[in-house]
Structures are given as C-alpha cells and as structure tokens.
Design the sequence.
C-alpha cells in the first residue's frame, strides 16, 4: 500500500533512464503517474503499479514533484510550456525536476520562467546509465533553492545513490554536467581511437583490453565501452547523437566564454562523422567504426 505521507510524483519521459527512475520511486512507496510518446514504455510503468497519463499536463496535475527525463532543453521547454505543458497544471509550490543535459544559461531561463508562476525548479542532470537508474543509484548533480530541494528530497533520495547539492540557483548543476560530458565524450573518442589503432597493429584486442584496464591508461569509458567494440554490438546504451548534442553545447559554452576546447572539438568531429555516416542512433562506441574506415581495418562483428 502506498504511504500517503509521501509525495506524489509525475515522470515525463519513460525511456531507459526515466522508466528506471519511475520504478525506483514506486519501490519507495511514492505514487507515480507517467507519460511518454512510446505506449510500450507507459505500459511497463502501469504493470509495475504506476498510472498512465496522456500528456505532461495530465501527468503533473496533483503531483508534488514533476520529474522531466527528456533529451534536451527544447524538449524540456515543451514539457513545461508547450501544448499540454506541465506548468499549466502544476500546483503552486510543486517542484519541477529537470534531468536533461542542457546549456546552463537555458536552465536559468527556464527556472526563472517557471518560478515566476509560483512553482519551484530544480536543475538536476543525471549520470549513471539505465542500470543505475533502475537500481535507484544515479548520480544527481543538482542546484536550486532550499525550498526546491526540500520539496524534491523524498524523490531524490529514491532515485540517487549520490546526490550533489551544488548551488542555490539553476544552471550550476547543468554546468557541472557539461564538464562531465566534455570528459566523457573525449574519453569515448580516445578509447575508440586506441582500440582501433591496436587493431591496425594486429594486436589481440581482448588482450589489449585486459592489459589497458590494469594499466595507467585505463578510463571508465575505455573499460565500459570497449567491450561493445569487442562484441561487435552497437545496440545503443548511449547513442552517438547524444554526444553530438553534448559536445556541441560545450562548443557553444566555450565560444561564449572565449575559452579554447581543442580536444573536445576534435572529439566532436569524430561523433559528427559517425552521425553523418548514418550511425547516429547506434551506441556511442560506434565512433570506432569511423576510425576503422579511415585505417582500413576490420573490427569484430556480432556473433550470430
């Protein structure tokens, strides 16, 4: 039975991350209403004990916490202020938790616009992947007012293994996430460059993986993504186009700050090449295919 002393939540966007977050809320006795453009995702939430809504406005009606798990700033703005947007039905004092990766300046603008209506906004980008989302062990990089944190606290505790409270206004969480994404994108590109060079050298790629993961050159991304290359399996855990977007945001931020980011810019070019070659929806490790094409080498293929 749901504990009625706990807040009610709406989750907008039930992809691999959002569905896991919704299920984590349900496990903690928080009633959840969700919506998504994919009916099968909504059905999974309902099967787990949640409720379905047709759109963000319907999902947000009566919710104490509205959690938006969409791809980017434009979608977040649509969730809030578009047709059937959540802002029109959120109760005064309810909190909107924005999990999308976006430019910090846009996060500040969205927060100001929502807060002017008497609602709260928590800038709360996430990291950790679908497995941690389902386990309630995400890292959440959050910033916002004390009131926003207080209102969102039970939901945050249900979804996060690590919650970083990074400032008292929106935009700071987004900025921290972009630093993470700069490193993540660069490390994925570097891992793909290294494993494909190993192929060009005729090395045993599985042995390369074993040696590097035990050596100083290892990174979390090398350890996590190179197995996708070794298996020839590019089913998207995180797609190429995610880093086209995120490294593009880094370029915009850096240009505005008149700050050079040449390594991130080089990584962006490889993701752009992959996307332009039709690999945008494949796993981000598919950047290795571009290196392989350039080098004229063969990478492992999926086992039938």
Sequence:
């Amino acid at each position: 039975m749901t504990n009625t002393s706990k807040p009610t939540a709406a989750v907008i966007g039930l992809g691999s991350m959002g569905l896991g977050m919704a299920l984590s809320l349900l496990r903690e006795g928080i009633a959840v209403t969700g919506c998504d453009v994919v009916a099968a995702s909504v059905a999974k939430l309902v099967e787990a004990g949640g409720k379905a809504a047709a759109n963000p406005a319907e999902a947000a009606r009566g919710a104490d916490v509205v959690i938006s798990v969409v791809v980017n700033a434009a979608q977040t703005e649509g969730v809030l202020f578009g047709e059937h947007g959540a802002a029109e039905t959120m109760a005064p004092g309810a909190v909107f938790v924005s999990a999308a990766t976006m430019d910090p300046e846009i996060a500040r603008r969205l927060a100001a616009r929502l807060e002017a209506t008497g609602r709260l906004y928590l800038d709360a980008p996430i990291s950790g992947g679908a497995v941690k989302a389902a386990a309630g062990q995400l890292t959440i990089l959050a910033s916002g007012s004390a009131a926003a944190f207080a209102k969102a606290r039970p939901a945050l505790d249900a979804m996060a293994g690590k919650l970083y409270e990074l400032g008292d206004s929106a935009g700071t969480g987004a900025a921290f996430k972009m630093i993470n994404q700069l490193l993540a994108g660069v490390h994925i590109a570097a891992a793909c460059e290294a494993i494909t060079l190993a192929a060009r050298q005729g090395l045993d790629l599985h042995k390369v993986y074993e040696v590097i993961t035990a050596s100083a050159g290892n990174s979390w991304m090398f350890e996590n993504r190179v197995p996708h290359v070794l298996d020839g399996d590019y089913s998207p855990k995180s797609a190429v186009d995610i880093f086209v977007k995120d490294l593009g945001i880094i370029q915009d931020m850096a240009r505005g700050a008149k700050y050079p980011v040449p390594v991130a810019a080089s990584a962006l070019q490889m993701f752009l090449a992959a996307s332009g070659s039709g690999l945008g929806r494949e796993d981000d490790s598919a950047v290795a295919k571009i290196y392989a094409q350039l080098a004229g080498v063969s990478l492992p293929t999926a086992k039938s």
About this structure: The chain has two domains: 8-169, 175-295. Residues 143 and 166 are 5 Å apart (CA to CA). The longest strand covers residues 138-144.
